[in-house]
Amino acid sequence: MKRNFMLIALATTALTASGAAAQDVTLTIESWRNDDLALWQDKIIPAFEAEHPDIKLNFTPSAPAEYNAVLNSKLDAGSAGDLITCRPFDASLALYEAGHLTDLSDLDAMSNFSDVAKSAWQTDDGQATFCVPMASVIHGFIYNKDAFAELGLEEPQTEDEFFAVLDKIKEDGSYTPMAMGTNDQWEAATMGYNNIGPNYWNGEEGRQALIAGEQKLTDPQWVEPYATLAKWAPYLGDGFEAQTYPDSQNLFTLGRAAIYPAGSWEVSGFNAQADFEMGAFKPPVKAAGDTCYISDHTDIGIGMNAATEHPEAARTFLAWVASPEFAEIFGNALPGFFPLSSTPVEIQDPLANEFVSWREECESTIRSTYQILSRGTPNLENETWGASAAAIKGTATPEELGQKLQDGLASWYAPQQ
Amino acid sequence: MQKPRFRWHLVVFLAPAVLVYTAVMIFPLFNTLRLALYSKVDQERVFVGLQNFQTLFGDPNWAPAFWNALGNNFWFFIVHMLVQNPIGVALAAILSHPRLRFAALYRSAIFIPTILSFVIVGFAWKLILSPIWGIAPSMLDAVGLKSLFAPWLGKEEYALTTLALISVWQFVGIPMMLIYAALLSIPEEILEAGEIDGVTGISAFWKIKLPLILPSIGIISILTFVGNFNAFDLIYAAQGALAGPDFSTDILGTFMYRTFFGFQLQLGDPHMGSAIAGAMFAIILVGVCIYLFGIQTRMRRYQL
Q1: According to the UniProt entry, where is the signal peptide (chain A) (predicted)?
Q2: What kind of fold does domain A2-136+297-360 have according to CATH?
C-alpha cells in the first residue's frame, strides 16, 4: 500500500516537475476537500492566476478519510505538494512540530484574522501560526419556516421560549419537534452540547479557563448544558436512540420535523433537498438581553510545506488566500463554510447569511474540546460524545457525567490536576 | 550408491506460496508483535518492553475499556454458540431429510447471506430495524405487537445482542453446510442397522447421527471462536468506530481499530494498537490450543 502511495506520489511530482519546466512556477495543493474540486478549478484558480500569471496552481485532493495518512507518507517521502490544506488543531500541530509546515506568523495578511480564528493552527503558546485560516462552520438551529408559520411560532430567543416552541409543536402533533438522534453520538455532542454550551460557559472565557485549569468540567457552567440536553429527549422522534445522522437530515428535509440542531455545513445540502422555506436561529440564551455566544468552529486552513522549492510563490498565494477577495469567492461558492477574515463578507445565500450575521451580535468561540484537551487518553472529545448521548437518553445524571469527564481529563492533563 | 538428487522442483513449487504467505501474513504478524514492544516518545521510537501490555491491563484508562471489549466479545461468541450452531445443526438435520421438497432452494436461500458483504448486511439491518423508516416496527404493528418494538441498536442493553443475532442470521449457512455434508456422509447401512434395533426418527438423530457429526461441530465451534474474536466489520458498519451506544458494542476488533488508526481527534497510536492486536492473537491462540489439545484429542471418532 505504502509502495503504491510512493509510486503515485512520484508520478505526481514528475508531472508537476515537467509542468514547471514549461511555465514559471507551479504550486501543488494537497487537500481532503475533493468535494471542492470544481470550485477550485472553475473559480479559485482562475481568479488567482488572472492576478498572478507567473504562478500556476494544481489542486490535487484525496479522499477525506485517507488524507492524513496519505499526506504523512508523502511528507515523509518528500513528495508532498507545496501547499498543504490543514486540519484543525493537533493533526496540523504534529506536522508543524515534525518540521513539515513553515511558521507563517510573519505573513502580513495574518493580521486579517482574529485570535480565535488562528487558534486552530497555532502552537500552544500562540507564538507561531503555521496555517492561514480558510473557513469555519457555525452552529445553531435550522427550522422549517412553513411549519413555524402554520403553527404561529416565532424564532425563540431565550431558553424558555425555545422550550415553549417545542411544547407547541409537540402539542399540535403534525411535526416531530426536533430532529436529532443519539445513535452516532457525535450529533449529540457537536450539534447538542457544543451548540448550546458556549452560552453557559461564556464562550472563549470558559474555554480558556478550562485549558488553564481555572475551571473544571464539574463546574455548573459545564454541567448545566447536559441538564438542558436531557430536557430535549421528549421532543425528539420515536426511537431517537437508534436514529442516525442521515436519518435526522432526512426527517428534517422531508418536512417531518420542525427544528434541526445544525452546523452551517448543512446549508447547501438542505437547500438542494428541502422544498420548504428554511430559517435559522442561534442557540437560545438564558435570559433576554444576555450576551450570546456562538460556536464558530475553525475547520479548514492552508499552510506551506517546509520543503517546497518555491517558498516565495507559495507565500504570495497564501497572502491572497488571506485577502477579502478570496473570502468573497470561497464564502459564496460554499455557503455554510464561512471565511474567517475579520472583514465582513457579503454572502448571497439567505440561510447561510443568517448564520454568519450572528458574528456581529454574538461572541465567537470554538468547540470546547478541540484545542489541547483531546490530546490524551481518555480522549475528551470522544468522551464528550458518549456523555452527550447519555445525557439525552437519561442513562446518567449531568453531575455524574461532569465528574466522569473531569476525572478522565485530570488523569493526564496537568493543569487540571 | 548414487547420492539422491536434490528435489529442486519441490522448492520451485513451494516458493510462490511460501513467499507470498510470508510477505503478507507471517512478516506482518511478527512485526506487529514487535511494534507492541515500542512506544513513541518525543517523535522517537523507543523500546519499552512489556510496558504497553502493562498499560493495557493495568492502567485505569485502558483496562476497563479492554475488559469491556473482551467481555462483549465473549457475549458475542456465546450468542453464536447458543443460537447459530444449534440452528445450523437443526437446519442441516431437516435439510437432510430425504422427503423434504425444495431442499436445494432452502439450502441456497439460507446460505446466500453468507456471501453478502458486511457493509450490505449492516446497512440493510439498520434500515430494517430503523424506528423511522424500518419495516420492523410496521410489521410488529400489523400483528398488534408494536409495544414490543424498541430502538434495539440504540439501547445499551440490547445493541450487542441485536448485532450478534444479525451476525447469526448472516452466517448460519456455514454450520448448516458443514453439518449437512457430514450428515450426508453417514452410510445408510448404519441407520438401517439402527432401525432394525428399534432406533428410529428423532432418537436415531440423537443416538447415531449426532455422535458421528460431533467432530464437525467441534470444527465449527473453533471456526466460530476465531471468527468472533477477529470480528470487526459488522460492528464498524452498523455502529461506527466508537461502537456505541456508550461502548456497549465495543469488541476487541473495534477497540484495536480505534486505538491503532485513531478516531476523530484521537490520534492513532500504532504501538498500543499493536499491543491490543497482540492480546487478541494470544487469546485466539490459547482458545485454539485448548480446543486442539484439550478437546479434539479426547473426542471419540468412529470409523465409518
Answers
A1: 1-22
A2: D-Maltodextrin-Binding Protein; domain 2 (3.40.190)
Grid look-up 438542558 returns: A228
What band does B1 get if pLDDT is binned at 50, 70 and 90?
A: low
The interface pTM score, or ipTM, of the predicted complex is: 0.76
Q: What topology is assigned to A138-295+367-416 in CATH? A: D-Maltodextrin-Binding Protein; domain 2 (3.40.190)
Rounded CA-CA distance B177/A197 in Å is: 56
Q: Measured between CA atoms, how close is B278 to chain A, in angstroms? A: 20
- B156 at A interface, C-beta within 8 A: yes
**Partner-chain residue, chosen from A251, A393, A412, that has the shortest CB–CB distance to B132:** A251
Q: Where are the domains of chain A?
A: 2-136+297-360, 138-295+367-416
φ, ψ dihedrals at A121, nearest 5°: -130, 40
Q: A229: which 3 cell numbers?
A: 440536553
pLDDT at A11 over 70: no
Domains defined along chain B, listed by start: 38-298 (1.10.3720.10)
Q: What's residue B240's pLDDT?
A: 85
pLDDT at res. B304: 64
Distance from CA of B164 to the nearest CA of A (A): 16
pLDDT bracket for residue A154 (50, 70, 90): very high
Q: Which residue reads 464561512 in cell numbers? A: A338
